[in-house]
Amino acid sequence: MRCTLVAVAAILALAPARAAVAQGPGAYEPLVDQYRLGDPDAAVRQLARWPESAIDESIRHWSKMLRPEQIVGAAILHTELAAAILDSLPSRTNVHLHHALTLLDALATRRDAREHAGTVRLRWYRFVISLYAADARLYDADLYARDALGKFPRDPILIFLKGTILELARFNSSASAPVALPRGRAPASATRQQQTLESAAAEFRRALDLDPRLAIARLHLGWIDVQEGNSHAHQELATALADAKDDRTRYLARLFLGGLAERQQHFDDAAQEYELARQLGPTHQTPYVAASRIEVARGRLDRARELARALAALERVDDDPWWDYHLGALDGEALAWLRAEAHRR
User: Fold this and answer.
1) How far is CA 86 from CA 89, 133, 137, in A?
2) Integer Cα distance of 83 and 5 in angstroms
3) Residue 137 exposure: Cα atoms within 13 Å on the Cβ side
4) Could you count the other beta carbons within 10 Å of the beta carbon of residue 25?
5) Distance between CA 38 and CA 345 in Å, rounded?
6) Where are the alpha helices (DSSP H) in the chain?
7) Distance (Å, rounded) from C-alpha 117 to C-alpha 108?
8) What domains, with CATH codes, occur in the chain?
C-alpha cells in the first residue's frame, strides 16, 4: 500500500524539522490538493500537526466551496490520518472520521454528486468497520456497522461485516459483544459465546439471502457449522469454494474442509485438503502445521518431519489469511478504492 498506516509518533518523527506550516482555512485547500495530486504522505503528516480548532474552521469554510473531487480527497485524507493514529490516539481517530463524514455529507447535498457520494460513503463505511475490527475495537466497529446499515440496509457486504464483528466478539473478552441477550440473570460465558455465534450465523444468512454467491459469507457460515457440528457444513464450505473469486477465499475453504475432515477423523481427506491449501498458499504456515499433525495421526512420522523441515526452509513466511480470519483484517480493497477516488484528476 502506498501510504503506510503508522502511529502518529512516527508521522511526527518523519516530518522535516522546519518552521510550522500555515494552518487554517487558507492552507486547507492546498493541503487537500497536496494529498490528492502531490505528496500524500507529507499531507497526512502535516494534518497531524494541525490543532483541532484550525481543522474545524477549515471544514466549515471549505465544505461547500471545494470541488466534488476535492471533497472526496479531503474526506480520505482525514480517514488516512484517523487510521494512522488509531493505536496511539484512538479518541482523535474518531474525531477525524467524523470530519470525513461531515465532508461526505456536504458532498451528498450537491445534486450532481449525490449518487457518487453514496458510493464513496458505502466503501468508506466498509473500510472503517474493518479498521476497528482488525484492531479488536469491536464496540466502535459495531457502532459504525449499525450506522452504515441504517443508510444501506440491503448491502450484503455490510451485513457480512456485522456478522464478522459478532464472530470476533465470541472470544474477545475485552470487548462488549454487541448482541442482545435475554433479560434476567446474565448467561454463563459459554452460553453467551454460543448466542453470539448464532447471531453471527444469522447475519451471514441474511447477507447470502441478498447475494447467494457471496463466497466469503458462505465460508464464515460453513466454519460456524463445523464448530456447531451441523451436518450441512461440508456443503456450505464446498459451495464457498466453488463460488470463490480469489485464492485467499479458496485457501481458507480448503483449510476449513480439511479441518472438518480432521474433526471427523477422515485423515486421508484432511491430508488431501491441507495439501491443496498448501498449493494455494505455499508461503503460509498453517497448511504445513495442519498437514504435519495429520501425518502424526496417521502414524507417518517421517512425512510429518519432512513437512516441518519444509516449513523451516521457507525463505519467507507471508501473512497467513488464517490469522486475518480469526483476528480481523483491514479491508485493503476498500482502502485502495478510496485512495484511487481521492487521487482521481
Assistant:
1) 6, 12, 10
2) 6
3) 19
4) 15
5) 12
6) 8-14, 25-37, 40-48, 52-62, 68-84, 90-108, 114-134, 138-151, 156-169, 189-210, 215-228, 233-243, 247-263, 267-280, 286-297, 301-312, 321-327, 332-342
7) 5
8) 1-135 (no CATH), 137-178+187-211 (no CATH), 213-327 (1.25.40.10)
pTM over 0.85: yes
One pLDDT digit (tens) per residue for the chain, 345 residues: 444 554 454 555 444 434 456 788 899 999 999 999 999 999 999 999 999 999 999 999 999 999 999 999 999 999 999 999 999 999 999 999 999 999 999 999 998 888 999 999 999 999 999 999 999 999 999 999 999 999 999 999 999 999 999 999 986 654 444 443 334 444 556 677 788 899 999 999 999 999 999 999 999 999 999 999 999 999 999 999 999 999 999 999 999 999 999 999 999 999 999 999 999 999 999 999 999 999 999 999 999 999 999 999 999 888 899 999 999 999 999 999 999 999 987
Which residues have C-beta within 8 Å of that of residue 166, sequence separation ≥ 6? 177, 178, 179, 196, 197, 199, 200, 203
* Residue of 171, 168, 173 lying closest to 142 (CA atoms): 168
Q: Any idea what DSSP says for residue 63?
A: T
Distance (Å, whole) CA 326 – CA 134: 10
CA 110 remoteness from chain centre: 30
CA nearest neighbour of 289 among 258, 321, 272, 311: 311
